[in-house]
Automatic annotation (TrEMBL):
InterPro entries for this protein: Homeodomain-like_sf (IPR009057), HTH-type_TetR-like_transc_reg (IPR050109), HTH_TetR (IPR001647), Tet_transcr_reg_TetR-rel_C_sf (IPR036271), TetR_C (IPR011075)
Keyword Isomerase part of the UniProt annotation: no
Residues forming coiled coils: none
Protein's UniProt name: TetR family transcriptional regulator
Cited Pfam families: TetR_C_11, TetR_N
PROSITE patterns from the UniProt entry: HTH_TETR_2 (PS50977)
Residues in HTH tetR-type domain copies: 9-69
Length: 187
């Protein structure tokens, strides 16, 4: 009985699960095709044939596992953010914080990974927040001078680094955003 080819969707998902598990466990510097091949029960040669670099393999694994989001419009910035974070927090079989830290480490060492991550992964996570910020500004909830990129980075970083904590979304929305928004409106 032959092996299922790497092009088969179920086989690719097995490989991608191995990739994300290895990245979360060992980081980018120690990540290698041997570790993925062993975990995915694939040959290193077949991995390299399909993905010529670890940056491309990691990026494809991330793209295949991006959460599918619709753009929420809950009427307020805080509630839009709550819905986005809830979608991100859907049960994931991966160590989100470990993957995030591995990507940060790798992006500092590998320009190809930094570029691929920005083009294919970051935009997928940030686009919904950008729309929510623009709506919040249009509603007068957020000041026009607000630096959207800094806010988005703060939201993502806080969510990822605290994703294992109980009630992290409520802490971000009700303990951080709502008080900040009220100070913007009070001015």
């Amino acid at each position: 009985m032959g092996r299922t080819p790497l092009d088969a969707p179920e086989r690719q998902q097995e490989v991608f699960a191995a990739v994300l598990g290895v990245l979360a466990e060992v980081g980018y510097a120690r990540f290698n095709m041997d570790l993925v091949a062993g975990r995915a029960r694939a040959s290193k040669a077949s991995l390299y044939q399909r993905w010529p670099s670890k940056a491309r393999l990691i990026t494809d694994a991330l793209k295949a596992n991006l959460p599918r989001l619709s753009q929420p419009d809950e009427g307020t910035f805080a509630e839009d953010v709550r819905q986005i974070l809830l979608a991100w927090g859907e049960p994931m079989p991966f160590d989100t914080a470990g993957i995030f830290l591995g990507l940060l480490e790798g992006s500092r060492q590998d320009a190809d990974l930094a570029y691929l991550r920005e083009e294919h992964v970051d935009r997928a996570y940030t686009e919904h927040l950008r729309v929510a910020v623009q709506r919040g500004k249009a509603r007068g909830e957020l000041p026009e001078r607000l630096d959207a990129e800094v806010l988005i980075t703060a939201l993502i970083s806080t969510f990822v680094l605290r994703s294992e904590e109980e009630g992290v979304i409520e802490s971000i929305v009700d303990g951080l955003l709502r008080p900040l928004i009220s100070t913007f409106r009070a001015k």
